[in-house]
Write a structure and sequence with these properties.
Elements lengths: L1 H9 L11 H15 L5 H24 L5 H24 L5 H16 L9 H4 L18 H15 L3
Helix pairs in contact: 1-4, 2-3, 2-4, 3-4, 4-5, 4-7, 5-7
Length: 164
């Protein structure tokens, strides 16, 4: 059953021609819907709670540290974050029948890609690493992430692991 919910998450957001900050808003609205829906599976809620928190953190920090940044920059980061989480979920599903050591490598690869690519260099690690340090959380990523670089790093690591 979890597989069905996770797979449905992968197909949630097809994007075509959208205006400035529409990508950010669309991802946030969809994630918020899943979080607030009492019928949503707890695992799906957890994944979407991370997305909402990551998007909120990103918006607040961009207003503080990058007031001249564009809505397009925010959209690109939001889109990359969504793709990062979806790629991670896809890999978790692909590796679910593999030995535990392989599954841990996938988790660590994505955690490292997130942690090693900060966007704001925020020193409030209690906030930024809240998900990262939570062993009970499926999305163990840093909120302070340059998602565009992180998805590239995670993709490269996965290709290397898969020998492609």
């Amino acid at each position: 059953m979890k597989k069905i919910f996770i797979l449905s998450m992968l197909a949630i957001l097809p994007f075509t021609n959208v205006a400035a900050q529409d990508v950010y808003n669309e991802i946030r609205e969809k994630a918020t819907e899943h979080v607030s829906n009492p019928l949503t599976n707890d695992l799906v809620k957890q994944i979407n709670r991370f997305k909402v928190d990551a998007l909120d953190y990103m918006l607040i920090k961009m207003r503080e540290q990058m007031p001249d940044s564009t809505a397009t920059f925010l959209d690109k980061q939001a889109f990359a974050m969504n793709n990062f989480v979806n790629l991670y979920l896809k890999k978790v599903l692909e590796y679910r029948t593999m030995p535990q050591a392989q599954q841990v490598k996938v988790l660590k690869a994505f955690m490292d890609a997130s942690y090693s690519n900060p966007l704001f260099n925020d020193t409030d690690t209690e906030l930024t690493l809240g998900y990262y340090a939570n062993g009970d959380c499926l999305t163990r990523f840093s909120l302070d992430t340059d998602w565009r670089r992180a998805i590239l790093a995670a993709s490269a690591i996965m290709k290397e692991m898969e020998g492609k």
